[in-house]
Design a protein that fits this description.
Distance between the termini: 102 Å
Strand order of the largest sheet: 1-2-3-4-6-5
Helix content: 40-55%
CATH class of one domain: Mainly Alpha
CATH topology of one domain: Transferase(Phosphotransferase), domain 1
CATH superfamily of one domain: Transferase(Phosphotransferase) domain 1
Radius of gyration: 31 Å
Length: 738
């Protein structure tokens, strides 16, 4: 064949050979370019079925115009020769690249995104590849992935008409052992087959996602997830066995990549990623977060004080990934994750991290090592959650932050009614993995259920989710959820505590009517009677006391709660607020500095310190503190750019330093993110005061009052609003307390 001219193609060299045919490099003498020609062998060309498959490949691929799919210039016949004219590529197959060594994480993600982008394009036209493997993926010398060989492509019926393909698009793909040696008969290389292909079932786009999961696994580790000496052994593995997680094979890989590949390799296609778009998005998010995580670590210069020496038994529980695909299930994901943290906090030898400390990592792709450095955590719990009807699947994995090596992992497929047992079991398994012996009291605390009524628990989680939004309508929804929960289970102490919190919030922010305080007090009494001295209940009691103006009592109560659970979410912030309202400014500075170090520099805790320094008249100390405060806000916003409250506080500090353009930019962004939020409006007034704009500041504080910020103590004591003191309108809105 070498040296021949076929039609107007002069063949110059052979590029490769397979069971079905040969690929040559040739010069297109009409256009003066070099191309690749793929020929069927004479024996194959005489097989009508194989010829149709060959032609189907050409039609399928030629209908796709994508930079990561090998371009098909045409399908031609010259005398008895059938061949496809393709673009000529310079580089190597992905199989050859993997054969040298596993790919680094950057290459895995970069090529992975390109390949998924190509499949997204193919699937959008109804074309499923069905034979995705490293041999069918080319990597050019410029690092660009190209998908080859659409010979097994399944074309949806509507698209088949457009492509002129009359071949059967629903070919069964099960193979017999002897097929492994028969050229052209093996529909998909066995090791890369999906379970539905192995069973001979009808395939859809999700079969490509499974095959690509296998390719990703091999790219990252250099080995196949499903192995065996015979096809039967490989089939059995594909159908029945879970592969070892990639970050156990290669501990340098982030757990999130292991999770992504694990979901792509789900045997039930309904549990896989449902589209190439979804899988591509997951890979892009991981790439972005790893890049930004490294950048933040290099540039922020901020670390929790505890990070210098990792604590032996400190566990950061990251928010599990919601795999249900429904945003409305996020309350369940958040609630179950937070309740696992609560369970772990009952073990005295364990240090946990509050919701505020781990919130920045929610729905972000980070390594355990990164979290460990930033929070001072020795171990990180990661996982995923999926609800389907009454069924619940939870995957949990405990990772050593120093090595990124998993210490323990488990998958729970249970009924929703077993959710409490799963939470307890996770806590016990973590204790066992860390060789912690539980005391009888701890075992009893872990086994205690908050409620026997699953519907009441669901309502409680919904209420807790609404309550955190602190808008008027959100609090009304939360109130309804909590009331329904305690109606179903009058002994549900945590739901009574939630009800108390909401009533106190509503009083504090929106309606200064005694009925709200009375309802809050009644709810705390019921919660205390049912739940005794649980930290969550003590914090609810403290918040009610604070809203009612009993600041000294609130301080004592919150200290009791923190003595039982030093990592309670929001505990230190409330303590700082209560001490400030009581006029105990120096205590605020002393205690909150310690709390700030303990909390991994949680930006909320900076607020009482800032205000206390101002109230004490320590101008120089406040000026110096601003630098640290700004660094904390900026570092936080790199992780959570949508946090409007952090942005408006940063705007206040910029304005105080005279950085007015930056202050205006941040304040405008905060208002755009959360228009009507009481704290945004209040702090916008503080920003305007720092800009010496008393007129607009008064308008902003009036809007804050109308939106629900009615606390005269905090407002009158806040040094950032000092220029408004004495203004008749301000005095009318926030009169001195009796």
């Amino acid at each position: 064949m070498l040296g021949r001219t076929i039609s107007h193609y002069h063949i110059t060299s052979q590029l490769g050979e397979g069971g079905m045919g040969v690929v040559y490099e040739a010069e297109d003498t009409n256009l003066g370019r070099h191309v690749a020609l793929k020929f069927l062998t004479p024996a194959m060309a005489g097989d009508e079925g194989l010829l149709q498959r060959f032609q189907r490949e050409a039609r399928a691929a030629s209908s796709l115009n994508h930079p990561n799919i090998c371009t098909i210039h045409g399908i031609e016949q010259f005398e008895s020769e059938h061949f496809i004219v393709m673009e000529l590529l310079d580089g190597e197959s992905l199989a050859d690249r993997i054969r040298r060594s596993p790919l680094d994480i950057e290459s895995v993600l970069t090529l992975g995104v390109q390949i998924m982008d190509a499949l997204e394009s193919a699937h959008s036209k109804g074309i499923v590849h069905r034979d995705l493997k490293p041999q069918n993926i080319f990597v050019t010398s410029r690092g660009q992935a190209k998908i080859l060989d659409f010979g097994l492509a399944k074309i949806d019926k509507m698209d088949r008409l457009a492509l002129g393909n009359k071949a059967d698009s629903e070919l069964p793909t099960a193979v017999r052992p002897k097929d492994l040696t028969e050229a052209g008969s093996t529909l998909g290389t066995v090791s890369y087959m999906s379970p539905e292909q192995a069973r001979g079932q009808i395939t859809d786009a999700r079969t490509d996602l499974f095959s690509f999961g296998t390719v990703l696994y091999q790219m990252a580790t250099g080995s196949l997830p499903f192995q065996g000496e015979t096809s039967a052994v490989v089939f059995e593995s594909i159908l029945n066995r879970d592969p070892m997680p990639v970050n156990q094979v290669n501990p340098s890989l982030p757990p999130e990549l292991s999770r992504i590949i694990g979901q792509a390799l789900e045997k039930d296609r309904d549990l896989r990623y449902q589209s190439a778009t979804d899988l591509k998005t997951a890979l892009k998010r991981l790439k972005r977060d790893l890049d930004s995580g490294r950048h933040a670590a290099d540039s922020s210069g901020i670390r929790a004080r505890a990070a210098s020496t990792l604590q032996d038994h400190s566990v950061a529980v990251l928010y599990f990934e919601n795999l249900s695909g429904m945003k409305e299930d996020e309350y369940l994901r958040d609630g179950i994750t937070e309740d696992i943290t609560t369970e772990l906090s009952k073990i005295k030898e364990l240090k946990t991290f509050s919701r505020a400390m781990v919130l920045a990592y929610r729905d972000k792709s980070v390594t355990a090592g990164q979290v460990g450095k930033e929070l001072g955590a020795s171990y990180v719990l990661v996982g995923s959650l999926r609800r389907a009807g009454t069924r619940l699947r939870i995957n949990a994995q405990l990772v050593d932050a120093a090595t990124d090596f998993p210490l323990w992992s488990e998958r729970y497929d249970r009924e929703m009614k077993d959710v409490f047992e799963v939470q307890d079991e996770i806590a016990e398994k973590i204790a066992a993995a860390l060789r912690i012996t539980l005391s009888p009291q701890e075992q009893q605390a872990l086994s205690a259920k908050p409620t026997e009524d699953l519907q009441a628990y669901d309502l409680y989680l919904r209420g807790r989710n609404y309550a955190r939004q602190v808008g008027r309508q959100d609090l009304q929804f939360a109130l309804q959820m909590y009331e329904n929960a305690v109606a179903l289970d009058p002994d549900f102490a945590l739901a009574h505590a939630g009800l108390a919190n909401v009533c106190a919030e509503y009083y504090y922010h929106f309606e200064r009517q005694q009925q709200w305080i009375d309802r809050a007090i009644a709810a705390t009494q019921k919660a205390s009677a049912k739940g005794h001295d649980a930290p969550e209940i003590q914090c609810a009691e403290a918040w009610v006391m604070f809203a009612d103006g009993r600041y000294g009592e609130a301080v004592d109560k919150i200290r009791m709660a923190l003595s039982r659970n030093p990592d309670h979410d929001g505990g230190y912030y409330l303590l700082g607020r209560a001490l400030f309202a009581a006029g105990r400014y120096q205590e605020v500075v002393d205690i909150m500095e310690e709390a700030l170090a303990h909390s991994g520099e949680n930006y909320n805790i900076t607020v009482p310190i800032h205000n206390a320094l101002g109230a004490l008249g320590k101008t120089d100390a406040l000026k110096n503190y601003l630098h640290r405060e700004i660094a904390i806000y900026e570092a936080h916003l790199k992780k959570v750019p949508e946090d409007a409250r952090a942005r408006v506080l940063l705007a206040r500090d910029y304005a105080t330093q005279g950085r007015l353009e930056e202050a205006k930019r941040e304040a405008d962004m905060a208002m755009a993110l959360r228009p009507g939020d009481t704290m945004i409006l209040y702090n916008t007034a503080c920003v305007l005061c720092a800009m010496n704009n008393a007129g607009d500041a008064l308008i902003a504080i009036k809007k804050a009052w109308e939106a629900g910020f009615r606390d005269p103590i905090w407002t009158r004591q806040d040094p950032d609003l000092a220029m408004l003191h004495g203004d008749p309108e301000f005095e009318r809105l926030y009169p001195p307390p009796n």
